[in-house]
Structures are given as structure tokens and as C-alpha cells.
Specification:
alpha/beta; Rossmann fold; 3-stranded antiparallel beta sheet; 9 helices; about 20% strand; globular; binds S-adenosylmethionine; SAM-dependent_MTases_sf; Class I SAM-dependent methyltransferase; methyltransferase; Methyltranfer_dom; transferase
Length: about 280
């Protein structure tokens, strides 16, 4: 079973969050797509396309001689992707509302890709195994997933801060985000375990590339952290109501921005790990 509930929902705040997150991840994603071999004329399936950013980037890289299809289980987010892609005028880019389970295709693809989608699966290996069925023999499968290193470093002394010089409000917000995801059952350490996931899916050992987003205090990172926490509030309220009540989400972005500007801190967001391999058939 590879269908899942998307814990962050698809309200306007979440759609803005996905768009900002995509800008933050754009450079890293493009480098990973190129490293995985994506180029002109290729056919691509983007699973869990969300607001369509990976599909749109793939469409740029394949050019009009290629063919890109983005699918998502949420019809509402597929409408958003279609509307955004309409402005890019890519005739070879299409979107379809379908979960991976229900999807079928008449032809296989040169590249099957998913970004930030395995983290939401209860059984990532089953998801990868199912996705690999849509790769043509000799084509490639690629997943691009976050890795929050602190989850794999239980020793407090080894934990990194998210801001330098450290800003307590930014670091605490990041910790709440990590907590919210883990309470919602989302494994943010997924990007650090992709070798294992690919092997469990019956695939050969993947090539790996890690990108670490970093930016200054005037960047979108404060808004991205705030919007991520906002999308996670239902999960936090469900599991830790007192914690959620203390957050004061409506003023958080302003407070974060002021604190970061005062210290001129350098900021981190979750690392992005790409893992890809050839599917032999
Ligand atoms: C965090 S969003 C990522 C969106 C996009 N890939 C990006 O990186 O901007 C995850 C998306 O995967 C979709 N999704 C999750 N499980 C799915 C499944 N089994 N089949 C199709 N879409 C799925 C969700 O609806 C959601 O829109």
C-alpha cells in the first residue's frame, strides 16, 4: 500500500510554503537532476509533484523534445501545478491527479523522480519498488529527500545549531518543526537512509549527492520556518497542545526576522539528499 495522507494539507499557506521551499531547493535540485543524467529529449515522471516545481524544472532540462508528467494524489494541488505551469508555456509538460497506486501509463519513462515524497510514506521501500515499475529498462529512478542530521545524532554535544551566531528563536522554531514532523509520523532522517531504502526496494546501490541550503538573515528562511511550523500546528495541537499554544504563530515571522537581522546570522535549512540508480528491467 503506497497511498498516504499528506500531513501538511494544501491550504494557501502550505502552497506558499511549497513555493518558497522550492526556491530554496532550486539550485540543489537542478544540480541533482543533472547529476542523475537528466537531459534533452528525456521522458520524466514526477511522483508527488505538489505545486509542480520539480516537473517544471525537469521540463526546462528536457526541452520541448522531451515529455514530462507530474502526478499527485491531491486534485487541488494538481490544479495549482497546472495553473503555475500554464505561465511557463511548456507544451511537453502535463499534470494528472493520481496516486502512485492508481497510476498507469502506456509507456515507461527515462527518469522517474520524486522530491520530498518518501518522507511522507509509511513504507518508503514499497513506494520506491512501485515507482521503479514505471522506469524503462536502462532508465533511472531518483528520489530527493531531506536529511535532518540532528535526528541521527542523539548525543546533545554533537547537535548542530540551525543559525550562526545562534538565535534561540530560530533554533527553537526549527526544533518544533522537527518535533511536529516526527509527531506526525514523518521521518525527516529519510534522506540519510536512502541506500537502505533502495536496497529494500530491490534496486542496486544508488549514487548520492547532498546539497545543504544556507542563507543570510534577509533570506526567505525565516518565513519558510514559520510556514512549515504553521502547517504542522494541527499535528502539534493533537499531540502536544500546551506546546502549540505557546507558539504565537501570527507574530512568529516578524519576531524571527527582527532577531536574525539583529545578529546577522547565517541560517541552515534541512539538507537535501539525492539518490539515483539505473533500473535494469
Ligand atoms: C512535500 S510535498 C512535495 C511536493 C513536490 N514534490 C516538491 O518537492 O515541491 C509531497 C506531495 O506528495 C504527494 N503524495 C504523497 N503520497 C503520494 C502518493 N502515494 N501518490 C501521489 N502523490 C503523493 C502529496 O499529496 C504532496 O503533494
Amino acid at each position: 500500500m503506497t497511498t498516504s495522507t499528506y500531513v501538511l494539507g494544501h491550504d494557501p499557506y502550505e502552497i506558499r510554503r511549497l513555493t518558497i521551499q522550492s526556491q530554496v531547493f532550486a539550485g540543489g535540485t537542478e544540480r541533482i537532476l543533472r547529476a542523475a543524467g537528466l537531459g534533452a529529449g528525456h521522458s520524466v515522471l514526477d511522483i508527488g509533484t505538489g505545486a509542480g516545481d520539480v516537473a517544471m524544472m525537469a521540463a526546462e532540462l528536457t526541452g520541448v523534445t522531451g515529455d514530462v508528467l507530474g502526478i499527485d494524489q491531491s486534485p487541488a494541488i494538481v490544479d495549482v501545478a497546472r495553473e503555475r505551469a500554464g505561465r511557463t508555456r511548456h507544451p511537453h509538460l502535463r499534470f494528472q491527479a493520481a496516486s502512485l497506486d492508481s497510476f498507469s501509463a502506456s509507456a515507461s519513462f527515462d527518469l522517474v523522480v520524486g522530491r520530498y515524497v518518501l518522507v511522507h510514506q509509511q513504507d518508503p521501500a514499497a513506494f520506491v519498488r512501485q515507482a521503479a515499475k514505471f522506469v524503462r529498462p536502462g532508465g533511472a529512478i531518483l528520489f530527493i529527500e531531506p536529511n535532518v542530521a540532528e535526528l541521527t545524532r542523539p548525543d546533545e554535544a554533537l547537535r548542530e545549531t540551525w543559525s550562526n551566531p545562534p538565535v534561540t528563536l530560530y533554533d527553537e522554531t526549527a526544533k518544533q518543526v522537527v518535533l511536529g514532523f516526527s509527531l506526525a509520523g514523518v521521518a525527516l532522517s529519510c534522506g540519510g537512509r536512502l541506500v537502505d531504502v533502495f536496497q529494500a526496494a530491490g534496486l542496486s546501490e544508488p549514487s548520492l549527492l547532498c546539497e545543504m541550503p544556507m542563507a543570510g538573515p534577509q533570506s526567505d528562511f525565516a518565513e519558510l520556518m514559520t510556514l512549515t511550523l504553521r502547517s504542522l500546528l494541527p499535528a502539534l495541537e493533537h499531540h502536544a497542545a500546551e506546546l502549540a499554544a505557546d507558539i504565537e504563530i501570527e507574530t512568529l515571522h516578524t519576531r524571527l526576522r527582527n532577531a536574525l537581522l539583529a545578529t546577522r546570522s547565517q541560517l541552515r535549512f534541512a539538507d537535501l539528499v539525492g539518490a539515483w540508480t539505473t533500473v535494469t528491467g
